[in-house]
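Fill in residues.
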């Protein structure tokens, strides 16, 4: 998610990166590529100005003549109003009751293409479309229709759109403020069995012009670029990215690198993709120079086939990536400090002695507002199949809790209005996850493994036991006992039970995370590490329960020691 203030700051300060927030990452898994047959979309809403909460809008019927007020998602600035439709669907976060999922990443593009008079910003496009569309194809047409009727004031976007049957990637950008209302766009269906990823850089380059089942686009997507002088070649060689969001060093290193890393992890270092009608497999390292911004002439595949079937846990862990094991691994230079911290505070780059250097932008980042992994599970009724695994703050040190999208209630810890960025709330999941994350940043190599163990324990239990068991119970309720499956009474009981599960699970895990934060404070205070037994109890001396036994002081990494010795050794050396 791009915030305009961030973009302005980057434009003023950055030479290596273009004026974009370099925020948000999406991974898209088609049903044929997932381990359970679900369509999966992950999304990290990364912004220094975004509070983590779970948006909730109940289904509703509206009287003729009703209007909907539009406020810009980034700033809450009033933009205008639009005609309301007779019926809107329930939405929980970025998913609706019919298992439609929409995520996004912003790429800016050519600044003159934002329609300053438009009122349908990219956030409004997402959440209004979720209230009006049932399928991915309907969502694409709804997005196009809304932007065309009301104008599009945002910059370039890539949308991830999925329903239980198929998944799409859609690149779009406005037409400017000179009377060309609407957007130019291309949407491609991801071949079943393949995956896709995007991160603040337009990803669609050349696309098929005569395959409406798998690729649809604005009628003027090519002619508009010609009119603007951005393209002059034959139609069949037209590249959406090159015309509307030309790749540069920042687009590669800050954005495409994240998509490359997601592919690298999920494909075990081997990219299988379709080239000239045939599947080809090449090592991921062939695109490493491209991802790092050293070879901008290359083009990474838009779709790749994973080396194995992908689970929700696989996708969640990809969202926790810091380029570990690659040349961009942020734990391995002096910027990681003495405890291998894989984070760099903003700005995105710095200058020294006439040269500009980057602060790497990995998938996991400190400024995440919320993140999710959503599943559209076609083998289940919509009431049960729509499932959002939702988390707040930095994905690397936070957990995902399962929320059925047909819930009738949102847990208190995720409820809108429970705190904000300027007001702390002790009952907010966003704030407790920030407390845990910021604790870890000071002794990352010691503390993160403790937190990760707690994350894995919860998520693995939910995925292997709790959610499958709940699905089974819900399906029995839905089918009834000899009555018509999906009757009003059956649905009512199903929704009541899935609401109870969603709320109780979230609140119980929130309580555990509150206890975890307290334990971290005690265990790691002042650079010490206190010992615990297998049950988590702190070890104490035989003379006092308040005096720790087995206390250690791990010190710093060898890399840090060597760097400090080189820099200041003449003063620090013991003689």
């Amino acid at each position: 998610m791009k915030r305009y203030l961030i973009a302005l700051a980057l434009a003023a300060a950055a030479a290596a990166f273009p004026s974009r927030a370099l925020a948000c990452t999406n991974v898209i898994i088609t049903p044929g590529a997932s381990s359970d047959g679900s369509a999966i979309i992950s999304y990290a809403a990364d912004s220094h100005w975004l509070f983590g909460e779970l948006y909730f809008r109940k289904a509703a019927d509206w009287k003729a003549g009703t209007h909907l007020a539009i406020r810009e998602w980034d700033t809450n600035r009033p933009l205008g109003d639009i005609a309301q439709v007779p019926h809107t669907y329930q939405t929980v976060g970025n998913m609706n009751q019919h298992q439609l999922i929409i995520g996004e990443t912003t790429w800016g593009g050519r600044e003159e293409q934002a329609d300053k008079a438009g009122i349908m910003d990219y956030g409004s496009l997402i959440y209004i479309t979720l209230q009006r569309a049932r399928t991915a194809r309907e969502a694409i047409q709804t997005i196009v229709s809304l932007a065309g009727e009301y104008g599009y004031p945002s910059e370039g976007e890539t949308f991830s759109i999925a329903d239980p049957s198929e998944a799409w990637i859609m690149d779009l950008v406005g037409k400017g403020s000179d009377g060309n209302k609407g957007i130019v766009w291309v949407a491609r269906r991801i071949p079943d069995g393949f995956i896709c990823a995007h991160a603040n850089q337009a990803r669609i380059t050349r696309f098929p012009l005569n395959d409406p089942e798998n690729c649809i686009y604005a009628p003027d997507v090519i002619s508009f670029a010609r009119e603007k002088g951005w393209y002059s070649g034959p139609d069949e060689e037209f590249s959406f990215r090159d015309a509307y969001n030309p790749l540069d060093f920042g687009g590669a290193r800050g954005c495409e690198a994240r998509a490359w890393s997601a592919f690298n992890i999920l494909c075990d270092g081997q990219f299988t993709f379709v080239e000239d009608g045939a599947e080809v497999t090449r090592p991921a390292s062939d695109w490493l120079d491209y991802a790092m911004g050293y070879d901008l002439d290359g083009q990474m595949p838009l779709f790749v086939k994973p080396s194995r079937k992908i689970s929700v846990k696989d996708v969640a862990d990809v969202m926790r990536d810091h380029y570990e094991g690659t040349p961009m691994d942020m734990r391995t230079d002096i910027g990681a400090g003495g405890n291998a911290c894989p984070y760099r505070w903003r700005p995105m780059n710095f200058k020294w002695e006439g040269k500009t250097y980057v602060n790497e932008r990995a998938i996991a980042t400190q400024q995440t507002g919320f993140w999710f992994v959503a599943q559209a599970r076609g083998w289940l009724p919509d009431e049960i199949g729509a499932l959002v695994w939702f988390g707040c703050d930095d994905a690397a040190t936070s957990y995902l809790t399962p929320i059925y999208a047909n819930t009738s209630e949102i847990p208190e810890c995720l409820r809108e209005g429970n705190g904000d960025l300027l007001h702390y709330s002790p009952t907010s999941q966003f704030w407790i996850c920030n407390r845990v994350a910021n604790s870890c940043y000071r002794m990352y190599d010691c503390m993160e493994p403790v937190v990760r163990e707690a994350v894995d324990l919860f998520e693995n239990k939910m995925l292997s036991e709790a959610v499958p068991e709940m699905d089974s119970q819900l399906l029995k309720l839905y089918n009834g006992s000899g009555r018509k499956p999906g009757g009003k009474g059956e649905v009512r009981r199903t929704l009541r039970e899935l609401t109870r599960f969603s709320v109780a699970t979230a609140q119980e895990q929130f309580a555990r995370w509150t206890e975890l934060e307290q334990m971290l404070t005690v265990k790691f205070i002042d650079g010490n590490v206190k010992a615990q037994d297998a049950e988590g109890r702190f070890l104490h001396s035989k003379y006092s329960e308040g005096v720790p036994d087995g206390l250690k002081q791990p010190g710093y990494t060898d890399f840090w020691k060597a760097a400090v010795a080189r820099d200041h050794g003449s003063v620090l050396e013991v003689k």
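The longest helix spans residues 488-524.
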